[in-house]
Write a structure and sequence with these properties.
The protein is an alpha/beta fold. It is built from four helices and three strands. The protein has a three-stranded parallel β-sheet with strand order 1-2-3, with helices on both faces. The chain is globular and about 35 Å long.
């Protein structure tokens, strides 16, 4: 996800809560991880180790597209999300992928938890 201040609450009260509500450990957000390496190497390592990836396309950030594609290439399930005000700005290559369209952190938490329960937990 985009590390913009406007999305802090979305991560804390939306993504992180939804993931832990479903019984998984808190998600890794690379800008909060202590390391001495290049950030891109850390991102790739975390994606390789992930059971699944939540990719939020709000802000239409190129890195999110790359990381989601890398995860998909490794066969990791990727849950695509996007704030409703940014929804139409998604790149055309991903518009055919089912995205969770959310309005606020509470909305995202509920919708993401439902998606995890429906698509990830049965595989666990």
């Amino acid at each position: 996800m985009w590390f913009d201040e406007s999305l802090e609450e979305v991560f804390e009260l939306g993504i992180s809560k939804a993931v832990t509500d479903c019984g998984f450990p808190p998600p890794v957000r690379i800008d909060r991880k202590e390391h001495n390496n290049q950030i891109t190497d850390e991102i790739i390592a975390e994606i390789r180790d992930a059971e699944f990836v939540v990719a939020d396309f709000s802000g239409n950030r190129g890195g999110v597209y790359y990381e989601a594609g890398f995860a998909r290439g490794l066969g990791r399930p990727v849950i695509h999300c996007c704030r409703e005000s940014d929804f139409e700005e998604r790149h055309f290559d991903t518009k055919l992928i089912n995205h969770i369209k959310w309005s606020d952190a509470v909305d995202l938490r509920q919708k993401l938890a439902s998606r995890i329960k429906a698509t990830i937990i049965p595989r666990a």
